[in-house]
Amino acid sequence: MKYQHVENFPNINSWKIIDGNCYYASGNLVKVIGKEVSIPLPYWGVDFNPSFFNVFTNRSVNTFFNYQGKVINTFEERNFYYYFSDSSFIYYDRVSKRLMYNDLELVRGKILSSYIFDELLFFEKENKIQTINFLSGQFLWEFSLSVFGKFKYKYSEEEKDYEVEQFIGIYNNILWVYLNARELIGIDVETGKLKYRFLGIEKKNPVGIVENYLDNEDYYIFYGADFKLDTEKGVIFGLKADRFFEIDLNKESIIPYLFGLQNKMEKAGLNKNDISGDTFLQDNLLYFCSINDLRFGVLDINIKEIIYVSEPIAVVERDDCFTQLKDLKVSENKVYILDSNHTLHIFEREE
To answer: Is the dihedral of CA 196, 280, 240, 303 positive or negative?
Structure first.
């Protein structure tokens, strides 16, 4: 496996991979699949969809364009969450202070983290995980995170409320959620009842060398990974620093495992502290960034081996800060990486 650095695009404001194609906004231009559309107004960001894009300002003015550059519609005082078409969406109305699905009121007030599965909207609000059928507006259930009380991070005396860090996904009718307390919970999608709670990985369950520097007496913590759910295999994966997490959701007794990759990181010439947790799963390959030495790597999750590490990416350095790698996506045979100078780097796998 080897990748070649084939292209750079500077001054990236927004970008997204859709159906294997890279959509991005640079300056006053939107580009995709050989097309180039001029944006004739100041903007804050761009949301891309297959048939249209939304150019929005920091004053919540939204202008929908098609990829021929024609204005489709304009909306004011709206923050969009999900787009289903250029005329159907979930959004927050800043005037009425309500979350809406088209003309249907869903929730009063703002929501925090959210996740959509079929016609269900899961979200965090007022220290609760709540669920609503957004097509009908029917409220289904809520699960209060306050049942867990409060927690403290190691080496801190400050008590914190439990909050959603990430909705990981749904498998076998269980909604898996990563909490800011570095715990994983599983909630029954139909009833809202707590089915699983993992405080960490039992210290008898690690494989390889794992340094015990942020953990408690009984568990290795789920340390800040961006977790991925492989819905075909039914397995949750996560990588952060030299810790690779794996949870097989098909087993009758679900047990989280931790694989210490310190020796393999060192062998590959990687500093574990540079492995940010921003990853992308493609089949059995987990792509990751080494943010400070400007490289990306590939971990084969089946054999737990690092099978590729790139050369350092050539970037434009700034006087006021160090350049880091910030965002990574993979599509077919290409790897896309955005750096902190807003340059998008594209790599292509050599056959």
So the answer is: positive
